[in-house]
Queue: 2 jobs
Job 1
Amino acid sequence: MERKNAREMARLTEGLTGGGTDLYNWFRDATIVELHEYILNVSTTFNPHAYELARTTLEIRIAAEQSESATKLEKQTDRLVNQTDALVGLTRKLYFLTVVLIIVAVIQTILMLCQK
């Protein structure tokens, strides 16, 4: 059996006073976009329960997506901090080697001038 879209579900639930098993199952599997479309199409007059249930489901789904996004962002931030620390360490080493190279160049120049 083909899964119903949001508009079809909104039309089917107009006469219901509750939710119904089909509606609950559809909410469980619906995407954020489908839930939003359902909310736009369901009658708040004839079935306020389904409307509120859809809104609550949508809010929960959005919160879950935000949580996943926050977790990904936290991991990427940690990785960026680690890479920045590594870059700072390499910059310090480069600074040290540059100072050593300047000292060697000065010493070599002094030795060349002393030989003449």
Job 2
Amino acid sequence: MVNKKIIWLDLERGIPSMTIARYGITLNSTATDIIDNYELARIGYYKEEKLLVVAAANLEDYNGKIPAGWFLVRDKITSHGYFRLNNKDLVRIISQYADLDLGRKNRFMAYWNEENRTLSVNLLKPLDTEKEKFSRRKSDLPEE
């Protein structure tokens, strides 16, 4: 029996994640591979829950046409294999709703919902990606 509440992780690749920075929105390779199984995507924001959502579909779902607000996934895959949306206005709006600091990269775990074909991130739960710096200078050691 498969428990749909379990999120299985690939230890070789890492968790699916989304980064929001001043320049735009980027999915890591694990999340990109999920979205790349589809031809179309659109992005939305669930204001009350502070969720950023990428919905996925195929052209056959829309009689071979790209509906308004949707875009081709392949057009957003970089030469390095990452999904990237370069839209500073979108990022500014999201940062205002979620109170994000665009002076740094904001990384979030991405959750895939197979039934709804959506990849979502909770903007209230950033991943801590700051590396602690350890110093061995004598002046940084506590006095004895």
